[in-house]
Amino acid sequence: MSLFTRSSTSPDTHDKDGTDRTDRTDEAREPSSEDTTAGTATPVRRWRRHRTAFQRHRTAFREKYPVAARSVSWGITALAAALVFFALLMPGRPEYFVVRQFLRIPVEPILAVALLMALPRRPRLIAAVVIGVGLAALVVVKSLDIGFNQFLGRGFNVVLDWGLLDDAESYVKDTLGATGARVAVLGLVAFVLLLFAVMSLAVVRLVNLLARHRDRTTRGTIVAGAVWITCAALGLTPLGNTAVASRNTIGFVQDRWGRVQETLRDEAAFAKEAKKDRFADVPADQLLTGLRGKDVMFAFIESYGRAALEDPAIEPGVDAALDEEGEALTEAGFAAKSGWLTSATYGGSSWLGHSTFLTGLWIDNQSRYRTVTAGERLTLPGAFDKTGAWRTVGVVPGVRYNWPEGDFYGFDKVYDSRDVGYQGPKFSWSTMPDQYALTAYQRLEAAKKGDKPLMSEIILTSSHQPWAPLPEMVDWDEVGDGSVYKDIEKAGKDPADVFTDPVRVKEEYGRSVQYSVHSLLQYVERYGDENTVLVFLGDHQPMASVSGNGASHDVPVTIVAHDPEVLDRIDDWGWSDGLRPGDDAPVWRMDSFRDRFLTAYGSRP
Questions:
Q1: Could you tell me the pTM of the whole model?
Q2: Which domains occur in the chain, in start order?
């Protein structure tokens, strides 16, 4: 039964005797030889023939099964109305999917009906299709909001975030495999196209029905408008804190338009901000004087957030790993201080956290990232490079293609996943275990005692979602080319089983952080010396299914050093002793770290 099915007469499409003029014309005219000649019929004529045949079958079905025909017709109408109201009242966050959210009176259909009834038939149908397309687009954006809120802790930005869908596809491919990802993408595209078609047909059907009962529609619109105004004026909220009178869609569109304007303004303002740098003109011989001769490592642990140290389901295992490695570091002569940083991102988009930390700018969206990496901002690696006293190296195992940002950051050499000789399996998204990435760094750079100390940035990826399968620690002398991990990967858990289980996903996330902590700190214990300085931190919190809805963006940050003078320079920071920041440790925005670090270990500008 078509969504265009008519069930009663309409003043503007029927004769006085009740006959549908459009249907009568199409059904009465026999197809001409011009219409049916093979190879000469136009698409319009062919469509008319199919439509005429369908109408004949429909009429025959009505005459033979009148009760069933009416039931199907009203069922489709009810479904059309439900789709429209769902689109209007659909929330953008999963926790708001409650019954009371859908028991509200939206103002938008009242206004739309009042407008559409004033239009002639053809403009009315065109407007109905446009409204249907708009409602489908509304559902798509709200669905993206749900996904972004779950994974990134924020809504979808209609200006900046379309490019992140490519990353989502790559993530699905890493999790489900190439075939699974292809099926998922094709299925999603088909669903979206079907949504646009069905929503447009639904609105057209409802509009045609209302037009055929114009008097009832007018009275109903007036009554509904009066009820809505009364509920809005009285602020009625009989269902918890949910107002009966809703302007959800109008507010949503206004909010998104405001975000678009804010985004465009922000791009211009940030471009000016990025050019201002109080450390840009500091002479090279005054930069980082307190670290001369030290091998300095900056290590990011993927998704290492506050939840890892505070969530009761995760904290015990991570704390035990930190305590174990802390004791070993103390025995080796190292000490540590820890604090908190508020990341510019959450749940993903790790490069935003990395760039915020290294540039001293708040980079919370892709536009800002493009702006700053296209400029000449002094980064932390760039400051080390500027002195001429260090060889600067980047180890980025998550990068599988050319990475031009390496030049921006100021690295003499960048090692991506293709440069480290790994012959083992991938672990879902992670291209290689952290222990292997560290042994490759040791083999390729740290073991080669050059005439300069090393400054390195190392990105550890084993704690990247979906946290299955996970690598395990092996003897450092057995890491080899990574082939040792093949059996470990085969014996690991299925990512689909872990990622969809709210209990197991926390457990495996905690295990992944433990693995990264053990890998990094055992590396320092094994290969570090009196000149080793390690700064390690998380890039962002894990996604909401692990850290919880509305979780903070805080991540731990720790400085480990053998030389006590290195930690003495940050005594006034108020950080906690050891590898775990205490509850009273200060919380700084991540973009403030660069300036504090350069000030503590060099001259003030």
A1: 0.73
A2: 55-261 (no CATH), 303-601 (3.40.720.10)
